[in-house]
Design goal:
Length: 556
């Protein structure tokens, strides 16, 4: 016969496993829905609050919602005030676990239903693919949660015969602090406030705990979630640290409210609910003190956020501020963060390109852009992309991931071309013997490529998809390649006619080739970041080192 401790440990373990499966399954199945909801329904602080509550209730994990939120702030898709609204909402959403346990798990005989759920969910996971497979995992998780509650009830019923609630700390100040600390430790050890709350409600239902003791434990368990946020913020990006601090301050505030109003809220809620089930009363108490914290802080959301921004100022490089390795588990969010960072890196590389082209023409305008910053940013982007894995069964997100990888590669190659030997603007002599005039062939290409780069910088700065900019860059790349082919023969023939020196002619050809290469890589960057995404280029020879060839300038 199993010992009491074994039954309790097994019940907690089964519940935790169910929570993990439910959270992972819902994150995988609804991950792109999460992205869409946060993107669409966080325009105002109120909608951000509602979105956070709904998503946390959906995935049964405030951590998953907070992680997604951190990623969106890092990617620049959410402002910090919007993110704080989602954080407030997620704390409300996780209180749904208490209602599920108290109204379903403890009141209804769900044991007979739970095992079929596990079986059906496991079969869906094994026999189906894509979203259905992930939903099967979540379904099996729901079944295991109820199996865990059933097992906990059995263990707690036996425990109630051996332990008197009076053995726990009483309602004195020291006793309350001790119970609060126990609640925090339960959440930290179980790595889930939901599991800790479920264990407490089950013990209360079995008579192992008194009503007030259970309520104080729940306050501690609610505050215990901030430990995970604090640990996650160590070494993280500025948006992640600010978001974690917002979570810590909110949960601490809600905990203080719960403790201060404990003597008033519990009797009030117990009377309001008819004094039927102590577990339902504690679930209502859990929701109530979180609602009161929202009511207290939400009207002051703007100054609250400004204060956090002053406490945690932005000191990271601007380009890589979007990247946070903690969101690598959420590919859709991570890829968008990488895309935003790549666009900013592209804007800087295009500035370097414009400067180098003008420098070759002996026209210096403004300070030299920092190519080193762009190189370091691209290296960081490549490392970040290497930590993200997007499943091919989600073709849209997979295509975005591939497109960002392509764009970063073309930016690196463009930067290599720009940092290599610069071919000076060719020098020529007119009939009067005057020195230093640009040849018309090179001048035409210079103006085209500069125009394409400048339009590309504007499009990248706006941060939105822009098919027109991508198509314009393609047109310029094709025109530049055609000009290079046409003028190459003409320039070299000028040697035979005595119109150009060999040095001048070869310099002109080299510069045309270099401009061709710059224009080609700029087109590919804009195509992947602003246009329709990655395209297969069937050249038969691959991409040449000296710029686009007839075969691939025709590729769409």
């Amino acid at each position: 016969m199993l010992s009491l401790s074994t039954v309790l440990l097994g019940g907690i373990g089964i519940f935790l496993l169910g929570m993990i499966l439910l959270t992972d399954g819902m994150k995988a199945a609804a991950g792109h829905a999460l992205r869409g909801v946060l993107d669409r329904f966080t325009g105002t602080p109120a909608s951000a609050l509602a979105s956070g509550a709904g998503l946390a209730a959906l995935v049964q994990s405030s951590s998953a919602t907070i992680l997604t939120t951190i990623g969106f702030v890092s990617a620049g898709l959410l402002t910090f005030p919007q993110a704080v609204g989602v954080i407030f909402g997620s704390s409300l959403g996780t209180t749904s676990t208490g209602w599920i346990v108290s109204l379903l798990g403890l009141r209804l005989q769900v044991g007979q239903l739970a095992l079929p759920l596990v079986g059906v969910g496991a079969l869906m996971y094994l026999l189906s693919r894509g979203r259905s497979s992930h939903l099967g995992l979540a379904l099996a998780g729901v079944g295991l949660i109820f199996v865990g509650i059933d097992t906990l009830q059995t263990g707690m019923a036996d425990l109630a015969e051996r332990i008197d609630p009076a053995a726990f700390p009483d309602a004195t100040f020291g006793g309350t602090l001790a119970l609060l600390a126990v609640g925090v430790v339960m959440t930290v050890v179980m790595q889930s406030s939901s599991a800790a709350v479920a264990t407490t409600l089950t013990a209360l239902h079995a008579g192992t705990l008194a009503l007030e003791q259970a309520a104080v434990l729940v306050v501690g368990q609610n505050m215990g979630t901030t430990v995970k946020s604090g640990l996650a913020a160590i070494g993280a990006s500025v948006p992640a640290r600010r978001t974690a601090l917002a979570h810590i301050l909110f949960n601490t505030t809600s905990g203080v409210i719960g403790l201060v109003l404990l003597g008033f809220l519990l009797p009030f809620l117990d009377g309001l609910l008819g004094g039927g089930s102590p577990a339902v009363t504690v679930a209502a108490f859990h929701t109530a003190f979180n609602v009161l914290a929202v009511a207290l802080l939400f009207p002051f959301l703007a100054p609250f956020c400004r204060g956090l921004e002053r406490i945690v100022p932005e000191r990271t490089p601007l380009i890589t501020r979007h990247l946070d390795r903690s969101v690598a588990e959420l590919p859709s969010v991570a890829v968008e963060a990488a895309r935003r960072a790549t666009m900013e890196a592209g804007e800087l590389v295009f500035q370097v390109a414009c400067h180098r082209i003008r420098e070759g023409g002996e026209t210096r305008r403004g300070p030299n852009p920092d190519a080193g910053t762009a190189r370091r940013a691209l290296e960081e982007i490549r490392r970040f992309l290497g930590s993200v894995q997007t499943p091919p069964e989600f073709p849209q997100e997979y295509g975005r991931h591939v497109a960002v990888v392509h764009a970063s590669d073309h930016l690196s190659r463009l930067l290599e071309a720009l940092e290599g030997p610069t071919t000076a603007q060719p020098q020529g002599r007119d009939a009067g013997g005057d020195r230093s005039r640009r040849t018309s062939e090179v001048e035409e290409v210079v103006e085209d490529v500069l125009g394409s780069l400048e339009d590309g910088m504007k499009a990248l700065a706006r941060g939105e998809r822009n098919e027109e900019a991508a198509e314009w860059a393609r047109t310029i790349a094709r025109r530049t390649a055609g000009t290079r082919r046409q003028h190459r023969a003409r320039v070299l023939e000028g040697i035979a006619r005595g119109e150009r020196s060999p040095e001048e002619a070869f310099t002109a050809v080299d510069r045309l080739r270099w401009l061709d290469q710059v224009g080609y890589h700029a087109w590919r960057v804009l195509h992947h970041l602003l246009g329709s995404g990655p395209t297969e280029l069937t050249t038969g020879r691959g991409e040449l080192e000296d710029g686009p060839d007839e075969a691939y300038v025709e590729a769409g």
